[in-house]
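Consider the following input, taken from an annotated entry for Pirin family protein (Costertonia aggregata).
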Amino acid sequence: MANPIKKIFPLGFPWQTEDPFLFCVYHLDHYPKGKEDMSPNASLEGRTLGNDFTIKDGWRMYHGQTIPGFPAHPHRGFETITIVNKGFCDHSDSLGAAGRFGEGDVQWMTAGRGVQHSEMFPMLHTDKENTLELFQIWLNLPKANKFVEPHFKMLWHEEIPIVKIENAQVKIIAGSYASVKALDPAPDSWAGITDNDVAIWNIHIDAETEYILPKSNISDVNRTLYFYEGDSITIANTAIRPNYGATLNPNNDISIISGKKPSHLLLLQGKPINEPIAKYGPFVMNTDVEIQKAMQEYRTTQFGGWPWPYTDNVHDRSKGRFAKYPDGTLVKK
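Applying the prediction step yields:
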């Protein structure tokens, strides 16, 4: 049998991905208690506010000036899947959609022809730390879908299927596992086509146990495993340390043996789109000419403008988890 590991690589910021994925970043910030305005109850002195990506005291402000996060910015030509395992994210966008999600929720947003959104991390707890753990994954759109209408979708954690087996559990954000199917993705997604075998799985393996990762349903997929928490895993007699990833052979079941601590992994898999990619910051198209047109259109139209009072908009502390959709539909959790 062929070696199940094709390559092992260190996890940077962002993580290395393969087609059809463009980008994956892991945020783990041990934020302090919050103030009444939901900002960190700690000094911001010594931070490069507006561009604070260096971990100081266990956390970062990112592009936030008062509250950590990413104020209004544009996207075109791909999708974002934001998985918030711990803490909360406040979403606002140029469609008028908004939401607060976290503690296991997932937001799936299709940028399509263009959207602005902000992602802020409010410090809701004033009596304890506000730890944030999230993944943001960029999934490409094929040329035929680069200009679809933007779409905003919530996958609430109460509804996301989790498969529990003897030594592990698998949270199925996209794809299917052991005949259990994920919730539907956004309507124009590459993940919506079964034959593309797109999978996004968050895998937790008990300490000192073996887990069998099942082979892909098709042979021509890219499959990458990211080991982000634990002390070690072993695949095919090869020890892999945390903060490393591995590209895997998709055609065989793969044994993963966890070390002395539980192991936490993210799996990204999918059939490649195999189209030219031109990228510039938040725009992902097929040619440089299309990138120039995207930049010009954004300067002219602002992709519909910004209907919120602040670029770093956050919602009232009392709101709890909710989603407000572009058509005005409000869902509270």
